[in-house]
Amino acid sequence: MKNFSMPEQVSPTLEIDELMRLKHSLEKNVSREVAESIIKEIPLSINSTPDIRAEWVEKLSAILENRFDKKTVKNIRQECYCNENGRLEDTANNLKQLYLSLDKDLHRFVNALNENGAGWFIKDNQLYTKMFTCECPMLEKAKNSNSLTWCHCTAGYNKKLFEIVFEKPVYVEIVQSIRQGFDFCLLRITFQ
C-alpha cells in the first residue's frame, strides 16, 4: 500500500488487543451477543502474518458494512482506536502544551505545526489535519479500498487526541484516506 510504514513499536499482543477493542466496541454499540458472534465468526490468531491481518480487516469490514447502518459502523470502528502504548496521551499532551504556549490561538497553533511540515489548515472554522503515512500494522499488506470502515478508528483516535488538546468536545470525520489510494489521509475536526 502506498504511503504505508510500520509503526516504531508494534505490540506483541497486537491481535489480542485488536480483538478486545472490537469486542468492547460491539458490546457498547450493539450487544454482547452480537460481539461474541462476530468474534467467533472471524477469529484472528496471535502472531498472524501481515497478509492474514489484511485479510481479516477485509472480512471484518465486509461484515460490519453488511450488518449495520453507516452510523453504527462508524461508531463501532471509532471505539476501536489504539493508544499505541501510551503514545496517544503523550502526543496529545505535547500538542496541548504547544497550544497553551500560543495562548490557545488555533491559527498560531496550526502555523507552528506547519513549520514542521504538518500541512494542516483551517477552513470555515474547522481544522483539517493531514497524515502522510499510514502506520496501522493491521494494514501493512492491505490493498487499496474505497471503504473507510477500517479507517474510522483513526477518527476515534483523533477525537480523543484533540479533546485532550482543546479541552472540549470535537467531531472528527475522515475526508479521505491513504487506503483509498490518496497520498495522505485528511481529517476534518469540528468543534462542538
UniProtKB/TrEMBL annotation:
Highest taxon, organism lineage: Bacteria
Pfam families referenced in this protein's UniProt entry, alphabetically: DUF6144
Protein name: L-2-amino-thiazoline-4-carboxylic acid hydrolase
Taxonomic lineage: Bacteria, Bacillati, Bacillota, Clostridia, Lachnospirales
